[in-house]
């Protein structure tokens, strides 16, 4: 079956856009082919620095012939209608067929040649390609990511003839820019194309380019007893920057090794796109680097290695200069500079934020039992490195540099670690801080962010989360759960809100913060308006954190209705919420659990139905007066349950509490099966009894929210 | 091609002049108003706009007052040279022409690693942006290559291709020199004696750095800025032979822009004010760009 080969050859495509471009090309081609009734046996796309390529196997040379059915006017309709239909179909009346009293036209449609369809498809793909950013060039109106130079398009070894804005299709492409003979070559099918590219020093498949890079790096390293510091993001990028990727090992002046390894790696990676290496089996870096060149140079890469080494030296000299200047300055002048740095127009300066974080870190240290002095010291210094020269150059080293500088300045190790780690976790794969001082500062940092942006109504909506509040919330959750911290969040949230409002003034959502704060009357007594707002922000944030926790628990496979059932209790202690969800999950997997849940639902349905008739009776359940074993049984079970259930809950032994509830299963079943609630003289007490079941179970979770 | 490799800073410039002259460019001299980059020369900013073809190359002294280091940093200067090429419409083979210029200055493209690395260029003070690359040679950025999409907030059509070479950096690389002041300015074997870049410019860097950071009177700079700002629309309102005085008005925009850079170097512009100053300059530039395009259409 015929094969289609398409190559869109352009000037250099940004590395970061290539992978998506290959996917988009595949998707668009599949859609177009499917719309024409084609289902290729195989379809594959490739993206590289100068080309997007598609190969589709098993296309017919033409669409199948088909018959189109057109419905015309009713038989006996006015003659004008029939005339119109004949004109439209180009048939005469005797060619029409009557079916169910309607004239039908059957028109034979020749299947169109595939080449025609491909020509239209390529034009539609080129004109509609979803590049993140595209441009025009020269006098053309066409848009592409960079100037489009050639279109190779062959079907079954024949050129599919067309032209897009003066760029004709053909069967010719080019290989590597600098290596080989530099002559364009003909490719009439994929085998010729792949062989031609190989002969002209182009590796088509990005995965092959990556493999070639890794293998080349390993060979270079092995010869010198080195190990590559692997970096997937960097590998992805450099594989999009070279058609003939060729690792070259260069030397770095070992004197630079006294710089922190993060600085060296960041400088190598962000400025130069180099891989770092270390001595085999050792930590720390070795005084070399690997750059991925685009050519296999005539001199074996000596000039390339020397040139790159020189550039790296000047980069690292800059870094050294920043380090030397920074250690001359110290934290206090940096803190001073934070007065001139705006955190957010409505939330004040970075210095004001530091003040809040400092005090909040102290409060949290108190709650979690961390060293108060160290936590406030670390909170005060955590953001100082933002005005250091090194972080100015490499923003991603915030925190890390503060940690190093703290040690240089002789600060306590726990304080230095807390400065270093307080931004953590910065992503799902990043570790959470575990040292108590670090935990206190990390939580204070995130809570101040959350409270601040919620206070000024900058909550995330849909896919928009410009201040990364979801990440901050997730950080809070992970720090608490992974450290098994017991902390009622409302208290620090309120505290954080109070710091904000006391220092920034009152924020009324419309005019921003202002000094004169109105008083409001609550329960007849005047109160500061901010206390109401702080409470509202805290409640909002608990709900926001609960939502994020749901996502976390769902990811762990917990049923979301169980999470809802536990959240309904209004708890603000995340560790306790999770423990409850886990116990509930276990309980509902038992027979007792399932049946008790069914019993709960029946009881609760009866209560709901009765509630519609009028308010339910109030007061305590009384001992049953009717002579019914089922009634007595449940009454006793409920009375016996009360204390052990309370004890288990007080001890936060949720599995124990579930075991206690399991005792209700038999009596509840017997009651619901044997007792008729609506006997007039017993109705009130029987409803009270059912309410007692609901209340007892409700101490553990809102079973009404559980599906099943 | 067996052309001789340049041996000095000035022969590097002469080689580029010769090369781009052979490609058919008009070889211009620098614009005589202080600018922060070669792009700001009216030969680029204004001539990029409008339908007429335009191909030019020139050296432009560029001033970045804040980058002054009193001649003590081997890589940073407050006054340096950019080599600028503008080709409108950009020819189909512009990349090849560019690579030919590297070959002309003695970079062997089969020994050096040349890469086109994504870099989307923009200059907010003139409301300009384009797509292109930083060109790397063995890991060092040797040029900026841009297809202009907008200038002065107006679409550039046909598209102009722009090349900017940082001459000192390129020369340091080609000649293997680590300190800019050690660059040979003329032929090191000159019968009249060798002159280094430092001999020409070191004192200038020292004095200008001091002036940039401490010498200029902020109040005077501010006053001059405001005067220039006021004058631009007045100049544009005047005309000669039915054409608004765009070229003198644009010179005033350039002066305002340089005054802003001086105020910035003096630390006289608060972070919050910065964006507003840049916006003011951009607005003036847009006025000029629009007036220029109107004249082109009318012509």
From TrEMBL, chain A:
<dbReference type="InterPro" id="IPR015944">
    <property type="entry name" value="Gly-tRNA-synth_bsu"/>
</dbReference>
<feature type="domain" description="DALR anticodon binding">
    <location>
        <begin position="598"/>
        <end position="698"/>
    </location>
</feature>
<keyword id="KW-0547">Nucleotide-binding</keyword>
<keyword id="KW-0436">Ligase</keyword>
<dbReference type="InterPro" id="IPR008909">
    <property type="entry name" value="DALR_anticod-bd"/>
</dbReference>
<keyword id="KW-0067">ATP-binding</keyword>
<dbReference type="Pfam" id="PF05746">
    <property type="entry name" value="DALR_1"/>
</dbReference>
<dbReference type="InterPro" id="IPR006194">
    <property type="entry name" value="Gly-tRNA-synth_heterodimer"/>
</dbReference>
<dbReference type="GO" id="GO:0004820">
    <property type="term" value="F:glycine-tRNA ligase activity"/>
</dbReference>
<dbReference type="Pfam" id="PF02092">
    <property type="entry name" value="tRNA_synt_2f"/>
</dbReference>
<keyword id="KW-0963">Cytoplasm</keyword>
<comment type="subunit">
    <text>Tetramer of two alpha and two beta subunits.</text>
</comment>
<keyword id="KW-0648">Protein biosynthesis</keyword>
<dbReference type="GO" id="GO:0005524">
    <property type="term" value="F:ATP binding"/>
</dbReference>
<comment type="similarity">
    <text>Belongs to the class-II aminoacyl-tRNA synthetase family.</text>
</comment>
<dbReference type="GO" id="GO:0005829">
    <property type="term" value="C:cytosol"/>
</dbReference>
<protein>
    <recommendedName>
        <fullName>Glycine--tRNA ligase beta subunit</fullName>
        <ecNumber>6.1.1.14</ecNumber>
    </recommendedName>
</protein>
<dbReference type="GO" id="GO:0004814">
    <property type="term" value="F:arginine-tRNA ligase activity"/>
</dbReference>
<dbReference type="GO" id="GO:0006426">
    <property type="term" value="P:glycyl-tRNA aminoacylation"/>
</dbReference>
<dbReference type="GO" id="GO:0006420">
    <property type="term" value="P:arginyl-tRNA aminoacylation"/>
</dbReference>
<keyword id="KW-0030">Aminoacyl-tRNA synthetase</keyword>
Automatic annotation (TrEMBL), chain B:
<protein>
    <recommendedName>
        <fullName>Glycine--tRNA ligase alpha subunit</fullName>
        <ecNumber>6.1.1.14</ecNumber>
    </recommendedName>
</protein>
<dbReference type="GO" id="GO:0004820">
    <property type="term" value="F:glycine-tRNA ligase activity"/>
</dbReference>
<comment type="similarity">
    <text>Belongs to the class-II aminoacyl-tRNA synthetase family.</text>
</comment>
<keyword id="KW-0030">Aminoacyl-tRNA synthetase</keyword>
<dbReference type="GO" id="GO:0005829">
    <property type="term" value="C:cytosol"/>
</dbReference>
<dbReference type="GO" id="GO:0006426">
    <property type="term" value="P:glycyl-tRNA aminoacylation"/>
</dbReference>
<keyword id="KW-0436">Ligase</keyword>
<dbReference type="GO" id="GO:0005524">
    <property type="term" value="F:ATP binding"/>
</dbReference>
<keyword id="KW-0067">ATP-binding</keyword>
<comment type="subunit">
    <text>Tetramer of two alpha and two beta subunits.</text>
</comment>
<keyword id="KW-0547">Nucleotide-binding</keyword>
<keyword id="KW-0648">Protein biosynthesis</keyword>
<dbReference type="Pfam" id="PF02091">
    <property type="entry name" value="tRNA-synt_2e"/>
</dbReference>
<keyword id="KW-0963">Cytoplasm</keyword>
<dbReference type="InterPro" id="IPR006194">
    <property type="entry name" value="Gly-tRNA-synth_heterodimer"/>
</dbReference>
<dbReference type="InterPro" id="IPR045864">
    <property type="entry name" value="aa-tRNA-synth_II/BPL/LPL"/>
</dbReference>
<dbReference type="InterPro" id="IPR002310">
    <property type="entry name" value="Gly-tRNA_ligase_asu"/>
</dbReference>
